[in-house]
Amino acid sequence: MPSDARRYAMLAVFCFGEFMDSFSASCLFPAIASFSSALNLQPTEVSWAFSAYSATFAAFLLISGRMSDIYSSRICFIAGAFLIGAFSLGSGFTNSKVGFFILRALAGIGAALNVPSALSLIVEWFPDPEKQKLAIAMYGAGGGIGGVLGVILGGLFVQYTTWRWILWFIGIVCIATALIAAIVVPPSAPRSHKPSIAMLDPGGISLVTGAMVLFVYSLTEGPIGGWGSAKCLAPLIISITLTVVFFAYEARIPEQMAALPPKVWTYHNVPVLFAVAFVPFWYWSTIALETIPYWISNYHWSAIISSVHFLPNGIATILCAGFISTLAKSWRPKYAISIGLALTCVSTVLLAFGDRKERYWSIYLPAFLIGSTGCMFVFTYANVAIFVNTPPAMAGVTGAMFNAALQLAVALSVAINTSIVQSINAKRSSQGQPAAYNGIAAGYWFNLAFFGTMLVGVLVCYTDERPKLLPSLPKVEETTVA
After folding, report:
1. pTM for the model
2. Domains of the chain listed by start with CATH number
């Protein structure tokens, strides 16, 4: 076992890796106008700058979790950090919108490698239950802080340099993180089984990866060509079909060979926690999408001024990260998550009335402080609880499930809120009226319904009894054929 100093140095590297994964997802919101002009993007194509990253991030998490559990978590983490850095550097140099989208998607694969491997390493190197809870809480806090500070720091880069430096910064920092991890993180203990390609469940992984990519593609095309268009409906139908086939396939193969064993859904509170995982990034991506561009275009604020006004979200997440991480050892998850969801609902109601800049101090400021505090409660406690309720042998897959929900939430929130705004603005335009705040407000009311449903679900379905000790999955015999 490494010394405490080395273990906490590893934890710092893992937390920073999670910070950069989330940073990469949100940092381009203040740069929408800049990169759209440079790459000659149509308004309907802008969402692909975010969906390309989120789609591959979510789609490849499961295979990354499987690779982490079967092969080397250390190598997966180092490779993931390096890939994010390399492809982000490349996307900062490209002048082609197609090349930009492809490189963003490839960076998402690197992020997918990063997350399950880091969580698996945390579970391995922090076996003490109390220290493990704290470590996972700190890791989750890194993701929440990265998602919010990405918007703020992105505005600084746009104002004082160029939008390309956002991506170059990600590239430099992530490659440096990979090099530091190679030095700090020791090799893991030998696996109890002989790794083989068959154990990756290539059939199941292919099905679920295809389903997620097509699902996100459908969500992105919906606001562009219409939800009834063939480009939206065809991939959506195929995605649903592949998902059904995936679950049927996973139920038929040996449990220890499945990428997502059906048994995982029977573990204590896992379905509820998976659903709740959609909330934090849904909220943060929505406010970044709806506030920053609206302020720049309607209030004529610069990117830096808009980022400064967004700063309360960063302050709330940083302050909460410290005390929530310590409370995670004592507070009951049901009550903490419920409080977080309630705060998120209150914030969403306030934001629906933020139709003019004179209301910043009375509406936006308290809404940001309340909402980001609530999301940190949800994010941290759900992240810890899902690992407490599943066996350590499934840490990689469990982390993949949780983070897939986070990334799918980004794609869902961007697509749904964009569609709501566009449909209401189109209706106003047909009536000879200019675009107003009505569409954004309608999006917030939809979000309120979603967050409220999650709150009711937690209050009704979440049970706080301490779960029984959970067995690991059966070991695979070393005679498994590759």
Report:
1. 0.83
2. 4-201+253-461 (1.20.1250.20)
